[in-house]
Amino acid sequence: MRERMEKALRKSNAEYTEIRIESATSSWVNFRGEELDNIGSARTLGGIVRALVKGGWGYSTFNDLRDLETRVREACESARLVGKEHSEFAEVESVDDTTTATLNKDFRQVSLSEKKAVIEEYNKIILGYHDRIETSNVAYNDRFRKVWYCNSQGTYIEDERPDTGVSISATARDGDNVQRGFESVAGSTGFQVVEGVHKKAEEAARRAVDLLSAPPVAGGKYTVIINPRLAGVFAHEAFGHLSESDVLYENERMKELMVLGKRFGSDGLNIIDDGSFSGLRGTHTYDDEGVKTRKNYLIKDGILAGRLHSRETAAKMGEQPTGNARAISYQHPPIVRMTNTFIDKGDDSFEDMVRDVELGLYALDMVGGQTAMEMFTFSAAYGYMIREGTVAELVRDVVLTGNVFETLMNIDKIGNTVELPPVGGGCGKGGQSPLPVGFGGPYVRIQNVVVGGRQQ
Ligand SMILES: [Zn+2]
User: Fold this and answer.
1) Could you give the CA distance from residue 218 to residue 329 in angstroms, rounded to a whole number?
2) 273 CA distance to ligand 1 centroid (A)?
3) CATH number of 2-212
4) Is the dihedral of CA 11, 14, 16, 19 positive or negative?
5) Rounded distance from Cα 240 to ligand 1 centre (Å)
6) In which element (H, E) is residue 44 found?
7) Phi, psi for residue 342 in degrees, rounded to 5
8) Tell me: the pLDDT tens digits for 426-439?
9) Residues ≥6 apart with Cβ < 8 Å to 114
10) Residue 136 contacts residue 31 (beta carbons within 8 Å)
11) Can you give the residue ranges of every domain in the chain?
Protein backbone atom coordinates (compact mmCIF):
# COMPACT_ATOMS: atom_id res chain seq x y z
CA MET A 1 0.00 0.00 0.00
CA ARG A 2 2.77 2.40 0.98
CA GLU A 3 4.53 2.18 -2.35
CA ARG A 4 1.30 2.79 -4.28
CA MET A 5 0.44 5.81 -2.16
CA GLU A 6 3.92 7.32 -2.40
CA LYS A 7 4.03 6.71 -6.14
CA ALA A 8 0.67 8.43 -6.61
CA LEU A 9 1.72 11.39 -4.47
CA ARG A 10 4.68 11.98 -6.77
CA LYS A 11 2.11 12.96 -9.44
CA SER A 12 0.97 15.85 -7.30
CA ASN A 13 1.68 19.40 -8.39
CA ALA A 14 -0.02 20.97 -5.36
CA GLU A 15 1.76 22.61 -2.42
CA TYR A 16 0.61 19.84 -0.13
CA THR A 17 -1.18 16.55 -0.82
CA GLU A 18 -2.30 13.64 1.31
CA ILE A 19 -3.98 10.31 0.72
CA ARG A 20 -5.98 8.55 3.41
CA ILE A 21 -7.29 5.06 2.72
CA GLU A 22 -9.60 3.19 5.04
CA SER A 23 -10.77 -0.38 5.22
CA ALA A 24 -13.58 -0.88 7.71
CA THR A 25 -15.74 -3.70 8.97
CA SER A 26 -18.79 -3.07 11.07
CA SER A 27 -21.77 -4.91 12.50
CA TRP A 28 -24.94 -4.02 14.35
CA VAL A 29 -27.83 -5.58 16.22
CA ASN A 30 -30.91 -3.59 17.23
CA PHE A 31 -33.90 -4.76 19.24
CA ARG A 32 -36.98 -2.56 19.55
CA GLY A 33 -39.49 -4.00 21.96
CA GLU A 34 -40.00 -7.68 21.13
CA GLU A 35 -38.72 -7.23 17.57
CA LEU A 36 -35.25 -7.77 16.23
CA ASP A 37 -35.45 -4.55 14.24
CA ASN A 38 -32.14 -4.61 12.44
CA ILE A 39 -29.11 -6.85 12.26
CA GLY A 40 -26.27 -6.89 9.80
CA SER A 41 -22.67 -6.35 8.92
CA ALA A 42 -20.78 -4.33 6.36
CA ARG A 43 -17.36 -4.00 4.88
CA THR A 44 -16.18 -0.80 3.20
CA LEU A 45 -13.04 0.23 1.43
CA GLY A 46 -12.26 3.68 0.14
CA GLY A 47 -10.09 6.70 0.34
CA ILE A 48 -9.72 10.43 -0.06
CA VAL A 49 -7.07 12.63 -1.60
CA ARG A 50 -6.77 16.17 -0.30
CA ALA A 51 -4.61 18.76 -2.04
CA LEU A 52 -3.75 22.36 -1.12
CA VAL A 53 -3.08 25.10 -3.66
CA LYS A 54 -2.98 28.81 -2.77
CA GLY A 55 -5.15 28.35 0.30
CA GLY A 56 -7.76 26.29 -1.54
CA TRP A 57 -8.49 22.62 -0.87
CA GLY A 58 -9.35 20.11 -3.55
CA TYR A 59 -10.70 16.64 -2.78
CA SER A 60 -11.24 13.37 -4.52
CA THR A 61 -12.93 10.44 -2.76
CA PHE A 62 -12.96 6.96 -4.22
CA ASN A 63 -13.72 3.29 -3.62
CA ASP A 64 -11.49 1.86 -6.29
CA LEU A 65 -7.83 1.91 -5.31
CA ARG A 66 -6.57 1.01 -8.76
CA ASP A 67 -6.03 4.48 -10.16
CA LEU A 68 -4.67 6.53 -7.28
CA GLU A 69 -2.59 8.73 -9.56
CA THR A 70 -5.71 9.97 -11.35
CA ARG A 71 -7.38 10.69 -7.99
CA VAL A 72 -4.34 12.75 -6.97
CA ARG A 73 -4.51 14.71 -10.22
CA GLU A 74 -8.25 15.35 -9.73
CA ALA A 75 -7.74 16.70 -6.21
CA CYS A 76 -4.92 18.96 -7.42
CA GLU A 77 -7.07 20.29 -10.26
CA SER A 78 -9.96 21.10 -7.91
CA ALA A 79 -7.60 22.81 -5.48
CA ARG A 80 -6.24 25.00 -8.25
CA LEU A 81 -9.77 26.08 -9.17
CA VAL A 82 -10.57 27.31 -5.65
CA GLY A 83 -7.14 28.53 -4.49
CA LYS A 84 -6.91 32.31 -4.75
CA GLU A 85 -4.77 33.41 -1.81
CA HIS A 86 -1.76 31.90 -0.16
CA SER A 87 -1.67 28.66 1.79
CA GLU A 88 -1.34 28.71 5.56
CA PHE A 89 -0.45 25.31 6.91
CA ALA A 90 1.61 24.77 10.06
CA GLU A 91 4.83 22.79 9.79
CA VAL A 92 5.07 19.52 11.69
CA GLU A 93 7.73 16.86 11.83
CA SER A 94 7.19 14.00 9.42
CA VAL A 95 6.30 10.65 10.94
CA ASP A 96 6.79 7.03 9.92
CA ASP A 97 4.81 4.80 12.22
CA THR A 98 2.50 1.81 12.45
CA THR A 99 0.17 1.37 15.39
CA THR A 100 -1.91 -1.72 16.07
CA ALA A 101 -4.96 -1.97 18.28
CA THR A 102 -4.98 -4.32 21.24
CA LEU A 103 -8.34 -5.98 21.71
CA ASN A 104 -8.96 -8.19 24.72
CA LYS A 105 -11.78 -9.92 22.87
CA ASP A 106 -11.76 -9.14 19.18
CA PHE A 107 -15.34 -8.40 18.13
CA ARG A 108 -14.47 -9.38 14.55
CA GLN A 109 -14.12 -12.95 15.81
CA VAL A 110 -17.51 -12.92 17.54
CA SER A 111 -20.32 -14.26 15.37
CA LEU A 112 -23.38 -12.15 14.64
CA SER A 113 -25.55 -14.75 16.38
CA GLU A 114 -23.45 -14.49 19.53
CA LYS A 115 -23.73 -10.70 19.43
CA LYS A 116 -27.48 -11.05 18.98
CA ALA A 117 -27.71 -13.42 21.95
CA VAL A 118 -25.90 -10.96 24.25
CA ILE A 119 -28.06 -8.02 23.19
CA GLU A 120 -31.25 -10.05 23.41
CA GLU A 121 -30.51 -10.80 27.09
CA TYR A 122 -30.43 -7.07 27.88
CA ASN A 123 -33.60 -6.51 25.92
CA LYS A 124 -35.41 -9.27 27.82
CA ILE A 125 -34.35 -7.80 31.16
CA ILE A 126 -35.98 -4.50 30.24
CA LEU A 127 -39.18 -6.00 28.85
CA GLY A 128 -39.56 -8.31 31.84
CA TYR A 129 -38.76 -5.72 34.49
CA HIS A 130 -42.23 -4.35 35.24
CA ASP A 131 -45.68 -4.23 33.69
CA ARG A 132 -45.34 -0.45 33.24
CA ILE A 133 -42.51 -1.01 30.74
CA GLU A 134 -43.94 -0.17 27.35
CA THR A 135 -41.00 -0.77 25.06
CA SER A 136 -37.23 -1.00 24.74
CA ASN A 137 -34.48 -0.08 22.33
CA VAL A 138 -31.19 -1.90 22.63
CA ALA A 139 -28.65 -1.15 19.92
CA TYR A 140 -25.25 -2.75 19.49
CA ASN A 141 -22.62 -1.40 17.08
CA ASP A 142 -19.02 -2.21 16.34
CA ARG A 143 -16.57 -0.89 13.82
CA PHE A 144 -12.95 -1.68 13.09
CA ARG A 145 -11.13 0.83 10.88
CA LYS A 146 -7.71 0.32 9.45
CA VAL A 147 -6.30 3.60 8.12
CA TRP A 148 -3.33 4.20 5.83
CA TYR A 149 -2.20 7.82 5.73
CA CYS A 150 0.51 9.24 3.52
CA ASN A 151 1.36 12.85 2.69
CA SER A 152 3.67 14.72 0.36
CA GLN A 153 5.87 15.83 3.27
CA GLY A 154 7.13 12.33 3.97
CA THR A 155 4.69 11.15 6.62
CA TYR A 156 3.40 7.59 6.45
CA ILE A 157 1.15 6.12 9.15
CA GLU A 158 -0.82 2.90 9.50
CA ASP A 159 -3.36 2.95 12.29
CA GLU A 160 -6.10 0.69 13.63
CA ARG A 161 -9.21 2.16 15.23
CA PRO A 162 -11.69 -0.18 16.91
CA ASP A 163 -14.89 1.01 18.57
CA THR A 164 -17.78 -0.94 20.02
CA GLY A 165 -20.74 -0.18 22.21
CA VAL A 166 -24.31 -0.83 23.19
CA SER A 167 -26.98 1.73 24.01
CA ILE A 168 -29.86 0.62 26.18
CA SER A 169 -33.16 2.47 26.46
CA ALA A 170 -36.28 1.60 28.40
CA THR A 171 -39.65 3.33 28.05
CA ALA A 172 -42.27 3.18 30.79
CA ARG A 173 -45.82 4.48 30.58
CA ASP A 174 -48.60 5.32 33.01
CA GLY A 175 -51.44 6.89 31.03
CA ASP A 176 -50.05 10.04 29.41
CA ASN A 177 -46.96 9.97 31.55
CA VAL A 178 -44.11 8.49 29.50
CA GLN A 179 -40.63 8.21 31.01
CA ARG A 180 -37.36 6.82 29.71
CA GLY A 181 -34.23 5.37 31.22
CA PHE A 182 -30.96 5.27 29.28
CA GLU A 183 -27.67 3.54 29.80
CA SER A 184 -24.80 2.82 27.47
CA VAL A 185 -21.34 1.34 27.43
CA ALA A 186 -18.72 1.75 24.74
CA GLY A 187 -15.00 1.45 24.30
CA SER A 188 -12.08 0.70 22.05
CA THR A 189 -10.73 -2.38 23.81
CA GLY A 190 -12.97 -5.16 22.54
CA PHE A 191 -16.23 -7.06 22.79
CA GLN A 192 -15.90 -7.61 26.54
CA VAL A 193 -16.89 -3.93 26.96
CA VAL A 194 -20.49 -4.82 26.10
CA GLU A 195 -20.60 -8.16 27.90
CA GLY A 196 -21.99 -8.64 31.38
CA VAL A 197 -23.77 -5.29 31.58
CA HIS A 198 -27.13 -6.80 32.61
CA LYS A 199 -27.19 -4.39 35.54
CA LYS A 200 -27.21 -1.45 33.11
CA ALA A 201 -30.32 -2.86 31.42
CA GLU A 202 -31.99 -3.26 34.78
CA GLU A 203 -30.99 0.27 35.83
CA ALA A 204 -32.46 1.73 32.64
CA ALA A 205 -35.72 -0.11 33.23
CA ARG A 206 -35.85 0.78 36.92
CA ARG A 207 -35.20 4.46 36.23
CA ALA A 208 -37.93 4.64 33.59
CA VAL A 209 -40.41 3.10 36.03
CA ASP A 210 -39.23 5.16 39.03
CA LEU A 211 -39.50 8.39 37.04
CA LEU A 212 -43.21 7.68 36.46
CA SER A 213 -43.89 8.50 40.10
CA ALA A 214 -41.19 11.17 40.50
CA PRO A 215 -42.42 14.79 40.58
CA PRO A 216 -41.10 17.30 38.02
CA VAL A 217 -38.49 19.56 39.57
CA ALA A 218 -39.88 22.97 40.51
CA GLY A 219 -38.39 25.65 38.26
CA GLY A 220 -36.01 28.13 39.83
CA LYS A 221 -32.39 28.96 40.55
CA TYR A 222 -30.51 26.31 42.47
CA THR A 223 -27.10 25.26 43.63
CA VAL A 224 -26.58 22.29 41.31
CA ILE A 225 -24.17 19.39 41.61
CA ILE A 226 -23.59 17.58 38.33
CA ASN A 227 -22.25 14.03 38.12
CA PRO A 228 -19.05 13.16 36.18
CA ARG A 229 -20.96 12.18 33.06
CA LEU A 230 -22.92 15.43 32.94
CA ALA A 231 -19.73 17.37 33.80
CA GLY A 232 -18.12 15.74 30.76
CA VAL A 233 -21.03 16.61 28.50
CA PHE A 234 -20.88 20.17 29.79
CA ALA A 235 -17.10 20.36 29.15
CA HIS A 236 -17.59 19.00 25.64
CA GLU A 237 -20.84 20.55 24.45
CA ALA A 238 -21.01 23.88 26.25
CA PHE A 239 -17.33 24.77 26.30
CA GLY A 240 -15.28 22.41 24.11
CA HIS A 241 -16.99 23.32 20.84
CA LEU A 242 -16.12 26.98 21.46
CA SER A 243 -12.47 25.92 21.60
CA GLU A 244 -12.51 24.50 18.08
CA SER A 245 -10.50 27.00 16.12
CA ASP A 246 -12.19 26.55 12.75
CA VAL A 247 -15.42 27.90 14.23
CA LEU A 248 -13.57 30.44 16.32
CA TYR A 249 -11.55 31.73 13.41
CA GLU A 250 -14.66 32.62 11.44
CA ASN A 251 -16.56 34.26 14.30
CA GLU A 252 -15.36 37.73 15.31
CA ARG A 253 -17.50 37.89 18.42
CA MET A 254 -16.32 34.52 19.73
CA LYS A 255 -12.73 35.49 18.94
CA GLU A 256 -13.16 38.51 21.20
CA LEU A 257 -14.63 36.36 23.98
CA MET A 258 -12.12 33.52 23.73
CA VAL A 259 -8.97 35.54 24.39
CA LEU A 260 -6.05 33.49 25.69
CA GLY A 261 -5.06 34.60 29.18
CA LYS A 262 -8.58 35.68 30.11
CA ARG A 263 -10.03 34.38 33.39
CA PHE A 264 -12.84 31.88 32.92
CA GLY A 265 -13.18 30.41 36.37
CA SER A 266 -11.62 29.88 39.77
CA ASP A 267 -7.97 28.82 40.19
CA GLY A 268 -9.09 25.23 40.67
CA LEU A 269 -10.74 24.96 37.26
CA ASN A 270 -8.90 22.97 34.58
CA ILE A 271 -10.46 21.74 31.34
CA ILE A 272 -8.41 19.43 29.15
CA ASP A 273 -8.70 17.77 25.76
CA ASP A 274 -6.33 14.83 25.49
CA GLY A 275 -6.21 12.55 22.45
CA SER A 276 -3.20 10.73 23.89
CA PHE A 277 -5.04 9.60 27.05
CA SER A 278 -4.77 5.83 27.04
CA GLY A 279 -7.72 3.60 26.14
CA LEU A 280 -10.58 6.04 25.62
CA ARG A 281 -12.90 6.34 22.63
CA GLY A 282 -11.31 9.59 21.43
CA THR A 283 -7.77 8.24 21.77
CA HIS A 284 -5.42 8.07 18.78
CA THR A 285 -1.67 8.32 18.43
CA TYR A 286 -2.04 10.65 15.44
CA ASP A 287 -4.85 12.74 14.07
CA ASP A 288 -5.97 12.60 10.43
CA GLU A 289 -3.25 15.03 9.34
CA GLY A 290 -0.51 12.86 10.82
CA VAL A 291 -0.05 15.15 13.82
CA LYS A 292 0.71 13.48 17.15
CA THR A 293 -2.10 13.87 19.65
CA ARG A 294 -1.33 15.38 23.02
CA LYS A 295 -2.73 16.78 26.23
CA ASN A 296 -4.08 20.27 25.57
CA TYR A 297 -5.19 22.52 28.38
CA LEU A 298 -8.19 24.59 27.30
CA ILE A 299 -8.52 26.17 30.74
CA LYS A 300 -5.58 25.99 33.17
CA ASP A 301 -5.91 27.28 36.74
CA GLY A 302 -9.03 29.17 35.68
CA ILE A 303 -7.36 30.93 32.74
CA LEU A 304 -8.08 30.32 29.03
CA ALA A 305 -4.90 28.49 28.05
CA GLY A 306 -5.40 27.02 24.60
CA ARG A 307 -7.64 25.80 21.84
CA LEU A 308 -7.91 22.99 19.37
CA HIS A 309 -6.28 23.14 15.99
CA SER A 310 -5.77 21.56 12.63
CA ARG A 311 -2.57 22.43 10.81
CA GLU A 312 -4.45 25.10 8.88
CA THR A 313 -6.15 26.83 11.83
CA ALA A 314 -2.89 26.71 13.81
CA ALA A 315 -1.08 28.57 11.04
CA LYS A 316 -3.92 31.06 10.59
CA MET A 317 -3.95 31.88 14.30
CA GLY A 318 -0.20 31.76 14.80
CA GLU A 319 -0.37 28.84 17.24
CA GLN A 320 0.87 25.25 17.36
CA PRO A 321 -1.06 22.28 15.88
CA THR A 322 -2.68 20.25 18.65
CA GLY A 323 -3.53 16.95 16.93
CA ASN A 324 -7.26 17.66 16.63
CA ALA A 325 -7.91 17.29 12.89
CA ARG A 326 -10.22 14.27 12.71
CA ALA A 327 -12.39 12.68 10.03
CA ILE A 328 -15.21 10.27 10.71
CA SER A 329 -14.41 8.18 7.63
CA TYR A 330 -12.63 8.22 4.28
CA GLN A 331 -15.61 10.07 2.79
CA HIS A 332 -14.78 13.22 4.71
CA PRO A 333 -11.82 15.57 5.08
CA PRO A 334 -10.50 16.12 8.60
CA ILE A 335 -11.98 19.04 10.55
CA VAL A 336 -11.15 20.38 14.01
CA ARG A 337 -12.65 18.03 16.59
CA MET A 338 -12.33 17.20 20.23
CA THR A 339 -10.85 13.87 21.38
CA ASN A 340 -11.27 13.10 25.10
CA THR A 341 -12.51 16.19 26.92
CA PHE A 342 -12.75 16.47 30.67
CA ILE A 343 -12.75 18.74 33.66
CA ASP A 344 -9.77 17.87 35.86
CA LYS A 345 -10.13 16.96 39.50
CA GLY A 346 -10.20 19.41 42.38
CA ASP A 347 -10.09 19.01 46.15
CA ASP A 348 -13.63 18.37 47.29
CA SER A 349 -15.48 15.19 48.20
CA PHE A 350 -19.08 14.71 47.15
CA GLU A 351 -20.10 14.94 50.82
CA ASP A 352 -18.34 18.33 51.13
CA MET A 353 -20.35 19.59 48.19
CA VAL A 354 -23.70 18.45 49.49
CA ARG A 355 -23.24 19.27 53.17
CA ASP A 356 -23.92 23.01 53.14
CA VAL A 357 -26.64 23.04 50.47
CA GLU A 358 -29.97 23.99 52.02
CA LEU A 359 -32.02 23.50 48.88
CA GLY A 360 -30.33 22.32 45.71
CA LEU A 361 -30.35 19.83 42.91
CA TYR A 362 -28.14 16.86 42.06
CA ALA A 363 -28.39 16.35 38.27
CA LEU A 364 -27.20 13.20 36.51
CA ASP A 365 -26.37 12.17 32.94
CA MET A 366 -27.85 13.79 29.88
CA VAL A 367 -30.58 12.84 27.45
CA GLY A 368 -30.58 15.84 25.17
CA GLY A 369 -29.52 19.39 24.77
CA GLN A 370 -28.82 22.32 22.56
CA THR A 371 -26.13 24.92 22.40
CA ALA A 372 -26.12 28.21 20.51
CA MET A 373 -22.67 29.74 20.86
CA GLU A 374 -22.31 30.51 24.58
CA MET A 375 -25.89 29.57 25.55
CA PHE A 376 -26.78 26.01 26.49
CA THR A 377 -29.84 23.99 27.46
CA PHE A 378 -29.23 20.48 28.77
CA SER A 379 -31.80 17.91 29.81
CA ALA A 380 -30.37 15.78 32.57
CA ALA A 381 -31.59 12.19 32.52
CA TYR A 382 -32.78 12.51 36.11
CA GLY A 383 -32.04 14.32 39.33
CA TYR A 384 -32.46 14.36 43.07
CA MET A 385 -33.34 17.31 45.24
CA ILE A 386 -30.79 18.22 47.88
CA ARG A 387 -32.47 19.22 51.14
CA GLU A 388 -30.61 20.39 54.21
CA GLY A 389 -27.33 18.88 53.20
CA THR A 390 -28.72 15.51 52.13
CA VAL A 391 -29.57 13.98 48.77
CA ALA A 392 -33.37 13.62 48.85
CA GLU A 393 -36.16 12.60 46.45
CA LEU A 394 -35.89 11.66 42.75
CA VAL A 395 -37.17 14.36 40.36
CA ARG A 396 -37.75 14.45 36.63
CA ASP A 397 -37.83 17.08 33.83
CA VAL A 398 -34.46 18.44 34.92
CA VAL A 399 -33.49 21.06 32.36
CA LEU A 400 -30.43 23.23 32.99
CA THR A 401 -30.04 26.49 31.08
CA GLY A 402 -27.33 29.09 31.06
CA ASN A 403 -24.50 31.04 29.60
CA VAL A 404 -21.35 28.90 29.58
CA PHE A 405 -19.05 31.75 30.68
CA GLU A 406 -21.23 32.68 33.65
CA THR A 407 -21.66 29.02 34.53
CA LEU A 408 -17.89 28.37 34.52
CA MET A 409 -17.45 31.37 36.85
CA ASN A 410 -20.15 29.98 39.13
CA ILE A 411 -18.37 26.66 39.70
CA ASP A 412 -17.41 26.78 43.37
CA LYS A 413 -16.49 23.17 44.20
CA ILE A 414 -14.77 20.49 42.12
CA GLY A 415 -14.64 16.84 43.15
CA ASN A 416 -11.43 15.05 43.96
CA THR A 417 -11.74 12.15 41.51
CA VAL A 418 -12.21 12.19 37.75
CA GLU A 419 -14.39 9.58 36.10
CA LEU A 420 -14.34 9.05 32.35
CA PRO A 421 -17.45 6.92 31.92
CA PRO A 422 -17.19 4.48 29.00
CA VAL A 423 -20.43 5.58 27.42
CA GLY A 424 -21.63 5.49 23.83
CA GLY A 425 -22.86 8.13 21.45
CA GLY A 426 -20.53 10.58 19.84
CA CYS A 427 -20.03 14.06 18.57
CA GLY A 428 -21.65 15.59 15.50
CA LYS A 429 -20.19 18.44 13.51
CA GLY A 430 -20.09 19.44 9.86
CA GLY A 431 -22.11 16.42 8.74
CA GLN A 432 -19.67 14.03 10.41
CA SER A 433 -21.54 12.12 13.12
CA PRO A 434 -21.19 10.26 15.43
CA LEU A 435 -17.46 10.65 15.97
CA PRO A 436 -16.22 8.58 18.92
CA VAL A 437 -15.12 10.91 21.72
CA GLY A 438 -14.36 10.48 25.39
CA PHE A 439 -15.54 12.83 28.09
CA GLY A 440 -15.92 13.06 31.83
CA GLY A 441 -14.90 14.87 34.94
CA PRO A 442 -15.39 14.95 38.67
CA TYR A 443 -18.55 15.94 40.52
CA VAL A 444 -18.89 19.69 40.02
CA ARG A 445 -20.92 22.15 42.05
CA ILE A 446 -22.31 25.25 40.36
CA GLN A 447 -24.11 28.15 42.03
CA ASN A 448 -27.19 29.90 40.64
CA VAL A 449 -28.13 27.54 37.84
CA VAL A 450 -31.45 28.21 36.13
CA VAL A 451 -33.41 24.98 36.29
CA GLY A 452 -36.48 24.56 34.14
CA GLY A 453 -39.31 22.27 35.00
CA ARG A 454 -42.83 22.91 36.06
CA GLN A 455 -43.23 26.43 37.48
CA GLN A 456 -44.88 26.49 40.90
ZN1 LIG B 1 -19.77 17.57 20.14
Assistant:
1) 44
2) 12
3) 3.30.2290.10
4) negative
5) 8
6) strand 35-53
7) -150, 155
8) 899 999 999 999 99
9) none
10) yes
11) 2-212, 220-451
